[in-house]
Structures are given as structure tokens and as C-alpha cells.
Specification:
about 475 residues; 2 domains; binds magnesium ion; four-stranded mixed beta sheet; Aldehyde Dehydrogenase, Chain A, domain 2; 22 strands; Ald_DH_C; single chain; binds nicotinamide-adenine-dinucleotide
């Protein structure tokens, strides 16, 4: 493994100044009611990037009030889908114009590789906006012939109302638009609570949304902690729906809050990392992985040669190191890595465990860091059974030369998405979400717009008209 962790970021990119650090409510940047702030940290160094206004219940109240007004009385849900499309396309263009700065902002706040932010995170955010902009003017109901022939009805697809979006730190930009873009297309008004570890890009998007012409109150951003701002949003009686992505533990809290108030819930998610390898190729793969790990470059996320940057925040860094210790203690063999890197920042060596048993914690729980666990299997049936014997089911990948195996395994694995001979390929048109404890509902795809719509049936008789004028030509 090569370490390039104390690189000179300025040599590779312009490090942006922080322009937005207040709450965005009703089209304005404002301080929190309490005046409180929290620090957002740069995982390259562990140093403070900016102090961000910390939203709490009173601020969520103000944001919900603004969104409620924008939804109940404002133009956004009432304008044509085509008008919403044009404004969303303008926002996509503004993001494109500021791509370098947004990519660098994401890198300093989340530690994501700058080169990936430039080609994945920010461009995918633009794609999501453009995709759902295109959906905004294609929201249709259906015409129904009622059974007795004396009535007909049609359905209207109407926005659900005020939506609260709660976002994790691993994809701050993509998750922001995965949630807001279909909700905007549907005509909803919303409050976004970004993760406390990565609030900066969301505030920048709020600013650009206003420039693009999204009316005040439609898109509010309230940074803050989960237990304060997040919890207040989830239990607010004037919020019609919550869309949440994060850990299962928080998902449970969100569901509990929803049960105690009037909320509907979008999705919750988890990601897992267990690699099952057939016995005939196990040793060869271990050999190859060992070579790869030795050449893997961990370093400053602005450095173009880096393949892995720091963990996004201190809590996650410590969690990953704790899981590595569990792995060692439970008897898995460390093939590579296993240690933190350097004195500064949150860097962890790429870590590979072999001889992992299904009941070890590293195989059962989500680590969410650069740690891979290899497990050996004999038959395909056994692999399917063991892969399915987890409480999660977000994604699975199959590597095989056999079309039959690819077909059998993809239909048998209980996961929301299955990649065959590829991994992590996503597209706005491809629904994404989990089976089992990994979630409800789907983000992306046209069905994500449905989540933010509700159906109204309108029924009318087709007989018994008192009079008729029929013009025929
Ligand atoms: P988390 O659950 O701790 O936090 C997610 C969000 O929920 C944050 O904005 C947080 O402030 C908020 N939150 C925390 N407590 C809350 C409460 N009581 N009420 C309301 N909101 C609250 O998760 P995290 O550690 O930030 O993110 C990592 C997790 O997210 C991982 O478990 C990962 O699997 C999951 N995730 C899944 C997907 C996906 O698969 N689609 C994508 C991204 C993240
Ligand atoms: Mg940060």
C-alpha cells in the first residue's frame, strides 16, 4: 500500500471558501433561533472547516411553516409540469457551471476523492435533476370505466404535500437530489436535513435553487443534529411525508416518530460488504487481492493518484477501527491492512480479512469502511443460502462466466439491486432501494416520483343528462 496522506491539496485544486453556513428558510439564509452553531470538520486533517448554524425544533417549525405556505398557497404545485421542468433544468445548468467548486466542497467536507466528485457525485446529481425535470410534465392519472357502466372516473396524481428529507453523509450531493428532484417534479415543498458531518453542499444547492427560480419556501435546508433537527422534522404534525436514508437504528427511531405523528415514510437503507468465493478459485483470488492491496494508494483526496481518501468523519473512522479489532479477536485472518494511517485526519488502511465465518460480527454487521471479508463456499445453492441469511438486502454482485448461474443467482438473491459482472453501476432510471431491513420504497426511476404523489379518484355519472348540445363536424 502506498500512503500519500499529507499531500498538498492546493497543488491539485482550488480549495473553495465557504460561502454558505446558515440555515436556508423561506428563500433566505438565516441564523438559528438559538444562535447555536456546530463545527463541520475536514477529514483530511481533523480541523474545523466552518461553523454552521445548528437547526433545532424552533427552526424546523419555521421551515415547515414556510414549506406549508409554499405548498398550500404558492405557485410551485400549481404551475404546469413543463414550468417546473424548465426551472429544474436551469438548476441543473447552474450546478454544471459551478461543478469544480462543488466537487472541491464535497471533498473537503466528506473526504471523497476529488476526481470522483468531478466525474461521479456532481455529474450524477445533475443527471438526477435533469431526469426528474423530464418527468415533471409526464405525470398522468388514468381513466376508469366503472363496473356498472353508469359512472366513469379518472384519477389525478397530486403531490403529497410537505416532505422532510433526511440525508446521510456518504453521498451528500447524490442523496440530496435523489430525494429532492422527484419531490420537486411532483410539486411538493420540502425541508432537507443534511447529515451533520456534511452540511455544506446542501446549503450551496439551496442558494442555486433560488437563482434558478424555485419559489421561496419550496426548498428549505436546515442543518443540525439528528436528535434535534432530525427528530423535530420526523415528529412534526404539519409534515406529510418523511424520506429517510441512513442507518437501520435511526430508521427505527424515524418509524417510531412517524407512528406517533401523521407521517408516511419513504425509504431506509443499509449497505453490506461480504464476498463469497467458490473454493476452486479462492486461493488464487486471495493472492490477487493481496497484490492489489499492496499497490492501493491511500492519500489526500485531491491527489489524482489517490484511490482512497480519509473516512468521512471521526465517528466512522473509530467505528471502522473497532470492527477491525473485532475481526482479529474473532479469529479472522488479516490478509492486508488493519491499521490507521498517519497522525492527522481519518485515514484507514484498505483491510482484507480471509477465513471469515458467517457468524462473526464483521460478516453480520455493517462496517461501512474499506474492509472486505472473504468467505469460501462449495455449491451455488450454499452461496445463495448464506448470502440471503442476513437481515439486510440492499445490493448484491455476481461475478461469473456462466449465463445460467447469473440468471439463477440474480433471481434467488434477496436484494433490491443485483449487479452481474459489474458493481455499483447506477442510473437515475434504475430504481434503487433495499429488501428486508434495508428499506421501504425506492429512490431513482420513475417510481420514485410516485412516492411523492397521491391519487385522487374523481367519479361522475355518464347517464341521465338533463340536456345535450352535441356539435359534430
Ligand atoms: P445515521 O442514521 O446516523 O444518520 C442519517 C441521517 O439521519 C443524518 O442526517 C442524521 O442526522 C439523521 N438522524 C440521526 N438521528 C435521527 C433521529 N433520531 N431522527 C431523525 N433523524 C436522525 O446514518 P449515517 O451514519 O449518517 O449514514 C450511514 C448510514 O447510511 C449507513 O448505515 C448506510 O448504510 C446508510 N446509507 C444507505 C444508503 C443506501 O443504501 N441507499 C445510502 C447512504 C447511506
Ligand atoms: Mg465534514
Amino acid at each position: 500500500m502506498e500512503e500519500h496522506c499529507n499531500g498538498n491539496s492546493e497543488a491539485y485544486a482550488k480549495i473553495p471558501k465557504i460561502k454558505f453556513s446558515k440555515l436556508f428558510i423561506n428563500g433566505e439564509f438565516v441564523d438559528s433561533v438559538s444562535g447555536k452553531k456546530f463545527e463541520t470538520i475536514d477529514p483530511r486533517s481533523g480541523e474545523v472547516i466552518a461553523e454552521v448554524a445548528a437547526g433545532d425544533k424552533e427552526d424546523v417549525d419555521l421551515a415547515v411553516k414556510a414549506a406549508r405556505f409554499a405548498f398550500d398557497h404558492g405557485p410551485w404545485p400549481r404551475m404546469s409540469g413543463g414550468e417546473r421542468r424548465k426551472i429544474m433544468m436551469k438548476l441543473a445548468n447552474l450546478i454544471e457551471e459551478n461543478l469544480e467548486e462543488l466537487a472541491a466542497l464535497e471533498t473537503i467536507d466528506a473526504g471523497k476523492l476529488f476526481k470522483w466528485c468531478k466525474i461521479i457525485d456532481i455529474p450524477n446529481s445533475i443527471d438526477l435533476l435533469q431526469y426528474y425535470a423530464g418527468a415533471a410534465d409526464k405525470i398522468h392519472g388514468s381513466t376508469l370505466k366503472m363496473c356498472n357502466g353508469q359512472y366513469q372516473s379518472y384519477t389525478l396524481r397530486e403531490p403529497v404535500g410537505v416532505v422532510g428529507h433526511i440525508i446521510p453523509w456518504n453521498f451528500p450531493s447524490i442523496m440530496f437530489f435523489m430525494k429532492t428532484a422527484p419531490a420537486l417534479a411532483a410539486g411538493c415543498a420540502m425541508i432537507v436535513k443534511p447529515a451533520e458531518q456534511t452540511p455544506l453542499s446542501a446549503l450551496y444547492y439551496a442558494y442555486l435553487a433560488k437563482q434558478a427560480g424555485i419559489p421561496d419556501g419550496v426548498l428549505n435546508v436546515v442543518p443540525g443534529y439528528g436528535a434535534t433537527a432530525g427528530a423535530a422534522l420526523c415528529s412534526h404534525m404539519n409534515v406529510d411525508m418523511i424520506s429517510f436514508t441512513g442507518s437501520t437504528e435511526t430508521g427505527r427511531k424515524v418509524l417510531r416518530a412517524a407512528a406517533d405523528s401523521n407521517l408516511k415514510i419513504g425509504e431506509i437503507c443499509m449497505a453490506g460488504s461480504r464476498v463469497f468465493v467458490q473454493e476452486g478459485i479462492y486461493d488464487k483470488l486471495v493472492e490477487k487481492l493481496s497484490v492489489m492491496a499492496n499497490h492501493w494508494v491511500v492519500g489526500d483526496p485531491f491527489d489524482p493518484s489517490a484511490q482512497q481518501g480519509p473516512q468521512a468523519h471521526k465517528g466512522q473512522y473509530e467505528k471502522v477501527l473497532t470492527y477491525i479489532e473485532h475481526g482479529k479477536r474473532e479469529g479472522a485472518t488479516l490478509l492486508a491492512g488493519g491499521k490507521p494511517i498517519g497522525e492527522k485526519g481519518y485515514y484507514v488502511q484498505p483491510t482484507i480479512f480471509i477465513d471469515v465465518k458467517d457468524d462473526m460480527r464483521i460478516a453480520k454487521e455493517e462496517i461501512f469502511g474499506p474492509v472486505m471479508s472473504l468467505m469460501k463456499f462449495k455449491t451455488i445453492e450454499e452461496a445463495i443460502e448464506r448470502a440471503n441469511s442476513t437481515q439486510y438486502g440492499l445490493a448484491a454482485g455476481i461475478v461469473t462466466n456462466s449465463l445460467n448461474i447469473a440468471n439463477t443467482v440474480s433471481r434467488s438473491v434477496r436484494a433490491g439491486i443485483v449487479w452481474i459482472n459489474c458493481y455499483f453501476t447506477l442510473d437515475p432510471d434504475c430504481p434503487y432501494g433495499g429488501y428486508k431491513m434495508s428499506g421501504y420504497g425506492r429512490d431513482q426511476g420513475l417510481e420514485a416520483v410516485d412516492k411523492y404523489l397521491q391519487t385522487k379518484s374523481v367519479v361522475t355519472p355518464v347517464y341521465n343528462s338533463p340536456w345535450l348540445i352535441l356539435i359534430s363536424s
